[in-house]
């Protein structure tokens, strides 16, 4: 129930939809890179709530907050998984696939 409330009442509101129920948690972590503090953002979650079929973990380097950057990316993956055709452009799908494979950096892909 707690992870569901993060979506319905909290920082993962980008994942609110009537099509399926997502449960998850957002967060951020500061890391030191070359002596400079950077903030990485993350989201972990699963759907649908009643009988989970898919789980996801999204980490966005220098992504500010999980709710602002990682949760919206997770929403696109969930939407694609649950067959919401046309919600992601071909470029966005390629970017998501590339990010999963860790072959490109955030600056190479804008979403």
How would you describe the overall organization of this protein?
- With 111 residues, the chain is an alpha+beta fold.
- The protein has helices at residues 2-8, 66-81, 90-100, and strands at 23-33, 36-47, 54-60.
- Strand 1 (23-33) and strand 2 form a beta hairpin.
- Residues 102-109 have low confidence and may be disordered.
How much helix, percentage-wise, in residues?
25-40%
Beta strands, count: 3
Tally the helices.
3
Distance between the termini: 30 Å
Alpha carbon gyration radius: 14 Å
**Helix/sheet category:** alpha+beta
Mean pLDDT: 84
Secondary-structure element order, N to C: HEEEHH
- Low-pLDDT stretches are 102-109
What characteristics describe this protein?
111 residues, alpha+beta, 3-stranded antiparallel beta sheet, 3 strands, disordered C terminus
Summarize the structure.
The chain has 111 residues and is α+β, with helices and mostly antiparallel strands. The protein contains 3 helices and 3 strands.
What topology does this entry show?
Elements: H1 2-8, E1 23-33, E2 36-47, E3 54-60, H2 66-81, H3 90-100
Antiparallel strand pairs: 1-2, 2-3
